[in-house]
Amino acid sequence: MNHATVTLAALLLTLAASGARAGEDAYPDKPIRLIIPFVPGGPSDILSRLVGGKLGENLGQQIIPDNRGSAGGIVGFELAAESTPDGYTMLLAAYSGLTINPYVYKKLPYDPQRDLQPITQLTVGGNVVVVNPAVQAKSVKELIALAKSAPGKLNYASTGAGPLLGTELFKKKTGVDIVNIPYKGTGQALIALLANEVQLMLMNPLVAVPNVKSGKLRALAVTSLDRNPVLPDVPTVAEAALPGYENVTWHSLVFPAKTPRTIVKRMHDEVVKVLNAPEVKNGILAQGLKPVGNTPEQMSALIREESKMYAKLVKDIGFQPM
What we know:
The protein has about 325 residues and is an alpha/beta fold. The protein has helices at about 5-25, 45-60, 75-80, 95-100, 100-105, 110-115, 140-150, 160-175, 185-195, 205-215, 235-240, 260-275, 280-285, 295-315, and strands at about 30-35, 65, 90-95, 115-125, 130, 155-160, 180, 200-205, 220, 250-255, 290. Helix 2 packs across helix 12 (about 260-275).
């Protein structure tokens, strides 16, 4: 290769790199798709409206929600993992898809730690143990006694691996026999719960709190180790019956893997700004969750840590992968 050829090749590489940087500097210059891996009406949907509207306003580009609810969120996660890593596709990811799914499904079409790039954790909080008001139990201990008096007669709703595993842990610790009825999303599960087709559920506070406050559902406990300040009279499961019991829920935003670092940083900074906006922060707190806004590195560490915890939990409770 002669000197002129080398010089031309170097020039082309420089121009390509400059063009890529220019594209990243102009980001975003078109609408961004936000994949929501559950059907409308659930906590992911609610959170997408709380965060997405303000984020789009700040970025000057529309955040377009794309509900892909099927297979416990797996379809949406797979779609995000296979999307072009250019910053124009994000996923609103529940913790279960990042930390639990690899251990409760025999075959998963994506690898959370290989195929997805964390942006930031949005929220954290305990689920709420809710029952239909017709259920003759006003405490966790009464629920356990009722379930033991009629094995297999009570049904619980699950909408993904997180609530499923949390309830299966509850079953293992108490020795009760309650039947899992899976739903595509929390909205569908809520309809069934209100109709008493299922009797109980570990429900995200975003959906549980308004229905508890309106009297449509009865809250027996929260699954975090601390009480929920929005439901101060509702004890924790650990307080009420099972010392040490904990089941924490969280949501996050992720990109496809290999999204440029400059774009990840830009989106991270913008989302943290949104989470600190009074209307968004207060909206999240009012639903019984806490806004987070950690770094991509901190979120990656959280995923690794909780993945190990759930792998052990699945083994300890004898859960058979689906």
